[in-house]
Fold this protein.
Amino acid sequence: MVEDVAFVSIPGSRDMVLKALKERHVSGVPVVKGGELVGMVTRTDLLRNPEEDQTALLMTRDPLVVKPEDSVVEAAKLLAENDIRRLPVVEDATLSGIVSVADIIRVIADLDINRTIERYFEKTAVAIWDEMPLPVAGAVMEYADVQASPVIDSDLNLVGIVSDRDLINASVIEDSVEMSDMSSATDEDEWTWESTRDTLNFYYGVSRIALRKIPVKQAMVPAVTAIKSSEVSECARVMKREKIDQLPVVSAHQKLAGMLKDSDLLWALIEHSLESEI
């Protein structure tokens, strides 16, 4: 686990969360109140709730946790079965650390799991065009419920990858003033011959996260790829070295065949541990 944990407190704001994510280069942080863990907030929470400013309304309450004495495989099972990326480590109701998928990938990298990734990676991928406006790409990724997408050019060549980290790095905070009206009558009032509407205009400020209107190619990063015959620990070492969590899987002709997520490799570790016990 990582003992030097980046965290935010409530009451708190979205700006504090953004600052913690960017400064510590993480995708999610625990939320504490009075020294006790009360939730988790992630990049995905920010992108899915662009107008929400309060940390308490952005976070997921009562997150799953592990204890310091729990095994790495037990943590891997919780992460894989619940499709989450991090587990706070709690001792005596106090946050003492955090363990993430990336931390377990480092364990897998040091093992010798030489089975191929073919049975683990997802055979489909939501590809993004490199000229697509970033806000459109963000919406596509949200609708598809993916945290990263391979990027292709007009010739269908794989040219990069864009993730929620890249979206956050390319985001800005936009402030605007919007208007709401409060009416004392409606046009549908059946007792009114000619509808009368007394309206009070109410103006209020809105602050939201917005993605810059730039093409995806200006926000993407180069893609590091794998092939179907790549080995589990080999891919884990690449992810560890490059500090990435997804690898596009390509054919011998460099055609996109799918995506390997770091969380997919958790299942390889779980199966490896079961076989080691036999």
Notes: The longest helix spans residues 264-277. Confidence is low (pLDDT under 50) at residues 175-180, 182-206. The first strand starts at residue 8 and ends at 9. The CA atoms of residues 246 and 261 lie 4 Å apart.
